[in-house]
Amino acid sequence: MTNEPFKTEQRTISRRFVLYLRVSSQEQGRSGLGLEAQKRDIRLFLSNYAEQPYEVLGRFVEVHSGTDDERPELKKAIALAMRDKATLVVSKLDRLSRRVSFIASLLEWKGLDLKVAQMPYADKFQLHIYAALAEQERDFISQRTKAALQVAKAKGTRLGAPKYHLDVLAAAR
C-alpha cells in the first residue's frame, strides 16, 4: 500500500453567471408567461453559448417598471455579479431598460460584464445601438397608446378608474 494521496477529479468552473429577469406589471408576474420566455432565452444562452461547466450564482426576479432605475433586485444582481466577477445575464436588453442613458451607464461600469441572451455575441457598440432602438420603441408604444386612448375617448368611452372604485379606495383610507 502506498502513502500516495487519493487523486480526485477537479472540476473547475469556467464561467459564473448572475441572472436577472423582469416583468413590468403584477399581472405579467402572476401569469408567468413573460418570465417563462425570459427563462427559456437564458437557458438557451447558457446551454449553447456559455463555457462549460458554468455556475449560476443567483437568480433575481423583479416585477417593476423599466422606466424606474431604482430597482432593488437589479441592484442586488449587479452587486453580486461585480463582487464575484460574474457575468450578468438578461434575456433581452429591454429587460434592463428602454433608456439609452441607463444602459450606457451600465456598460461604462468597471468590473460589470453584461450579456444579453438573445444577442450572445453583441459587443458594447452593438448594445448601444440596440438600446437606442429600444428607447425609440418605447416612444412608439407611448404614441400608439395615447392615440388609442384618444380614439376611445372620442367614441364616448369613459377613461380612468370607475367612480365606485374611487369611493371604495377613499373609504379604505
Provide a compact summary of the structure.
The chain is α/β, with parallel strands linked by helices and 173 residues long. The chain has helices at residues 26-31, 33-49, 72-83, 100-108, 124-154, 163-172; strands at 15-23, 54-63, 87-90, 113-116.
Describe this structure in words.
By secondary structure, the protein is of the alpha/beta class. Helices cover 49% and strands 16% of the residues. It has helices spanning 26-31, 33-49, 72-83, 100-108, 124-154, 163-172, and strands at 15-23, 54-63, 87-90, 113-116. The protein has a four-stranded parallel sheet, sandwiched between helices. Helix 4 packs antiparallel against helix 5. The mean pLDDT is 84.
Run of helices and strands = EHHEHEHEHH
* Alpha-beta content class: alpha/beta
pLDDT average, as an integer? 84
Q: Gap between N and C termini, in Å? A: 80 Å
Give the CA-based shape.
elongated
Number of helices: 6
Kindly state the number of beta strands: 4
Helix percentage? 40-55%
- The unreliable regions are none
What portion of residues belong to β-strands? Answer: 15-25%
